[in-house]
Write a structure and sequence with these properties.
The chain is an alpha+beta fold. The chain is built from 5 helices and 9 strands; from the N terminus they run E-E-E-E-E-H-H-E-E-H-H-E-E-H.
Length: 210
């Protein structure tokens, strides 16, 4: 009889996208990164808000609009407070939003790092034969699904592909997994290892560290 172990993996990108724009100091196109601070400007009853970016090569700044000429009465109090205190959560929310950004610099290896917070929500590590992983990503992440599974489960990409080919690694209700695609929120990963005790033991050791 199949015994299920259900986990939730919460994914967070470590580095937000870096827009590439003309730098007034460098005189060429340069990637800019968020500074961690908002800028507010009041004009009568209207308010402008920007997230300040800095050139990765110098101290030149660029203000990314959050909103402009917004009537103060139309701004939610909690949002206004977040902007005033440079709330890290609000900064992250804006910084990882690619909408409206100019071209974005291709991330280096260190900039594609993903923090993975794992939680077991049902089942026992010592007894499972069926592993179910649900991905939780409140913001888009830039990592392939096969790379994520390989680094977090200690299984090579070729082994993952072989498991998928034999129907042991699937999506919800047996659907095929797009291993070469980016990991996405709410993705369900099903791993059936009733007939593979060695691999199950290997994974149990990793899961016990959650």
């Amino acid at each position: 009889m199949s015994k299920s172990l259900k986990c939730v993996w919460t994914l967070q990108s470590e580095t937000p996208p870096h827009p590439v724009i003309p730098c007034k100091n460098c005189g060429v196109l340069k990637p800019f990164k968020p500074s961690g601070k908002f800028r507010l400007n009041a004009n009568g009853t209207r308010l402008d808000a920007w997230l300040i970016y800095k050139c990765t090569s110098c101290d030149a700044t660029w203000n990314r609009p959050v909103f402009e000429r917004r009537n103060c009465k139309q701004i939610a109090p909690d949002l206004l407070e977040a902007l005033q205190i440079n709330c890290p959560h609000q900064i992250r929310k804006v910084a990882f939003d690619r909408s409206g950004l100019p071209a974005v610099a291709g991330p280096g290896e260190s900039e594609t790092a993903i923090a993975v917070h794992k939680q077991i929500v049902e089942g026992e590590v010592e007894e499972w034969t069926h592993l179910e992983i649900t991905l939780n990503a409140d913001l888009p992440v830039s990592i392939r699904l096969d790379r994520l599974l390989a680094q977090e489960l200690g299984i090579s990409r070729s082994a993952l592909k072989e498991l998928a080919g034999h129907g042991k690694l699937t999506g919800q209700t047996g659907a095929s997994l797009q291993l070469s695609k980016s990991a996405k929120n709410a993705t369900s990963i099903q791993l059936q290892l009733a007939d593979n005790p060695p691999l199950r033991t290997q994974l149990s050791t990793i899961l016990l560290n959650i």
